[in-house]
Fold this sequence. Notes:
By secondary structure, the chain is α/β, with parallel strands linked by helices. Among the domains are: about 1-95, Spore Coat Polysaccharide Biosynthesis Protein SpsA, Chain A; about 235-310. Helices cover about 40% and strands about 20% of the residues. The protein has helices at about 20-30, 50-60, 75-85, 105-115, 140-145, 150-155, 175-185, 195-205, 235-250, 260-280, 285-295, 305-310; strands spanning about 10-15, 40-45, 65-70, 90-95, 100, 120-130, 135, 150, 175, 210-220. Strands 1, 2, 3, 4, 5, 6, 7, 8, 9 and 10 form a ten-stranded mixed beta sheet that branches. Strand 2, helix 2 and strand 3 (about 65-70) form a beta-alpha-beta unit. It is globular. The two termini are about 25 Å apart. InterPro entries: Glyco_trans_2-like, Glycosyltransf_2, Nucleotide-diphossugar_trans. This is Glycosyltransferase family 2 protein. Pfam families: Glycos_transf_2.
Amino acid sequence: MRDEAPSCDVSFAVACYDALPYLDAAIESALSQAGVSVEVLVVEDHGSDASLAHAQAWQARDPRVRVFRTPANGGPGAARNIAIDEMRGRWFAVLDSDDLLAPQRSRLLIDVADAHGADLIADDLVLFGEGIEEHRFLPPELAAEGGRWIDPEFYFASTIMLGTEPNLGFLKPMIRKSALDTSGVRYDPGLRIGEDDALIVRLLLAGLSYYLMPEPGYRYRKHGASISHRLSLANAEKMLRSEHLLRADLAATGLAGRAYRRRLGSIERAVAFTHSVEAMKARKPLAALAPLLANPRAALLYALPLKARIGRILGRGQ
């Protein structure tokens, strides 16, 4: 881990797995941030396309781009941990390899964070992509109230898995590097879905302050390739195990109240639903019924379009 003084304002972590169709646009978007100095840390995660060589070509012509590779395919959390260890900026920012940034985004977020003394700062997302109508992510009532602090209770209430409201776990906050280092929190490399959410929860519990502003500055691309990594049963169970560890840590804090119990219950329902779906795909109807009998509310998920439901918890990557 680096301990020298920061040499730029923002370090963008780009976890890269078969990202070639969109990688140029993502890198250009980060390098074009106005009013800040930046570096782009591309961490290639053993994909099957030419992303590594392409990123290395960027590195050869622009010193702000630095390229790394995971020891083996480890998922986005493992890739981002490498970026954290290698970063030289005052702020850590995630940029998914198929997403884009508004040019003024970083300057605006840093100014708001500094004005409020926030350790984490996030903004609204703009969802876009082929075949969908461009729209904002946050509900209008949340955007209309202006900036607000996000405490653990509010975060738990706003991260209901497969819920009817937008899940704040999808936001892309920037994190002050000094606070990140003091917390000692890093990504759980065992999670390939929900890794950003797990990091944010741990940072909040470590005492970091989180401010949300309503302006949309992060452009979140939805496309066919972005849903190639289905919520497998193995990944669903890893999420639940991670949440059970969190519940144990919360036991002595007084934060495991109603909002958290709803969050945990939503994950348990999602896992039961995934068990049932996997059994149905294997043409084992009795096996598909068993998890629904154990968690009857999971059966309600069948009432909604399966593709849309699963799409809310898809990880885009490894």
